[in-house]
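Narrative of activities, Objective 1.

The group set out to show that a structural description can be obtained from nothing but a protein's sequence at a throughput compatible with the screening campaign. Below is one input-output pair from the validation batch, recorded exactly as produced.
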Amino acid sequence: MKMTNSSKMPNLTSSSEAQMPSSEQNYEPRVSGAESELKLLELLFQVYLPPVLIILGTVSNCLTIFIMKRKNIRQCSISFYITAYACSSLLMLYLFLGTEWITKIFNQKSLDEKADWLCRVWQFISRVISYSGIWFVVAMMIDRFVVIWHPKQFSSLCTIFMAKFVAIIIFVGLVVISIHAMWTFELMHNSGCYPYHRENDIHSLIWPWVAASFYSYIPLALIFIFNVLIFTGICLKRPFKAHQTREHHSLLFTYTTLGTSMFYFLLVMPATIINVVDMTYPPSWLHDYELMIQLTKARFTAHYMAWLNTTIIFFMCLFFSRTFRLELWDMLCSVCCRHRRRIYELQSGSQSTHLNETDSCNETTPL
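Output recorded for this entry:
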């Protein structure tokens, strides 16, 4: 999710203008127009969009966590993965997008630019938390793959204990992969927190690709593969037509997992492509002012498209899962009913009348 140098203007030179003096009058208006568009895009994405995403993500993720903790579905392994994904989304919204927005509004240095040790620690923590989300999506996909293709192993593999064990493995793996940020990132003078690339250093050349593979390329490939397998299994086996016992109650979240993974893949892919371009484009591109402006605009757009993933889990559950909708309706009705009983108790103070009101509420409230 975090993109290096995503919010800064590209470091450009004026050599291209010096080489084309004959087209200077036609070139200058286009550049100023591109710059104005970039500033407008920066204002939209960095000032107005973050609070909308934070508020929407807070409400949607908190509702998802509350519903997944209800007794009817909290024993399903898939509910644990969805809860973990919602929690990681909340952490990302507050720790990273929230602090990024505050520093932009108050024109302050970001947290990782205040000290060299903060630069290293913050980059490490941000990677562990940010990329846990995509691996929780992969875990959801594997869980649903087992349910569809290996139903006999469902009771032993798709349990809360196994889900917690997988979550521990995810965080330990991300810590191992991300610990290099503690010594590769440095606080550059008047530049910010960036990795220090030493000349002819194999570690600086190879490790970014290794880390990017575990952060993005491998999980995205797994999401695509398991999407195909789960979709094929749904078409061939049609598991939802079978008799649904309590053991197979979580089958209803298979469509939710499929929809979540597909949207995640589509929203993250542009940022992944931009990151590959940033790591591989030739130095000659730096002299093309207009091209770098367009690349910066694409970087902004892809960066905040990826942030949409922190808000979608509630809507995926609401749209694809009938069980989730019923639990949401039941929770809302119980809250309203409890509020009505509390008001009536304050008005009457009679225990017998309170019991009658409780019965009446239970009879008239649609569940």
